[in-house]
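[audit] Reproducing an earlier prediction to check determinism. Same input, same settings, fresh worker. If the tokens differ from the archived copy the diff job will pick it up downstream; this log only records the rerun itself.
[audit] input (277 residues):
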Amino acid sequence: MTGADAASHSDTGDTGDTTPLIRAAHRRLSTAMAADRDGEDPTDPTTVQAMPLVLEIPHAPLPERRELLEAAAVACVAVCLDPRAGQPESAFAASLGRWYGARIRKIARRARNKRWVDAQAVPGVTATVGNAHARAFTPCPVNETPALLNRLQIEGTDLPGTPEQEAVLAADRHPVIWVDAGLGMSVGKAAAQVSHGSMLLAAAMDVEDALDWAATGFPLHVCEVESARFAEACAEAEQIRDGVGGDLVAGRAAAVVQDAGYTEVAPGSVTVVAVTR
């Protein structure tokens, strides 16, 4: 099963028409991502914000790496476009707003069994792709990460890559997030990067396209490919962003993720590109 089968579960409980709220959430996201931002003050730890991510990695059976990365990407964009993110005054929206104004940092942890169940009590959205589950939480100062999450391991079990990465793309026209496999990122690092990709892609989308994507549960594909193929994907993304290519790029959105280099990769590395198709 692939991103075509993605499902996300929000804790909002709202059964009415949430379109206006999602529209407002998209406006906040796209406006923030288009602006210069670095609201971090090294002398004030509360300004160092991060979105916690938790990946469920049981002892057995292990989830498929691709599905777990897709679940993380879906969960993140589902938080950003959650109806609560569009409410005029809510703790959910305020936490996103503070994070949007700082560096877009994510910290991935792993959990299993009771600790995974306990993590569901922290505000956020859980996404399921195939047999893989991930939850993205509302951002917070790194030094104020909820105890239920802070005790979880950041490093640990990695997962092998999925063969024939691009075979799934023929079945539908869902967005694709390309990952440079040549960087050798761990599953936790890659989860943070594809989550950057999904939220930036949503920000780059026309609001109506974003609403359609939200209505179907944010289905997407993640493809980890060798560096030469990734370079081709980067070139395509730049063409889309520049509007070069006529009908081949018309109406499409693209996002490029360049990592700050805090962990695993060199500063300035392009780790992920995300495109609509």
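[audit] rerun output stored. Observation attached for the diff report: The chain has one domain: 3-275.
[audit] end
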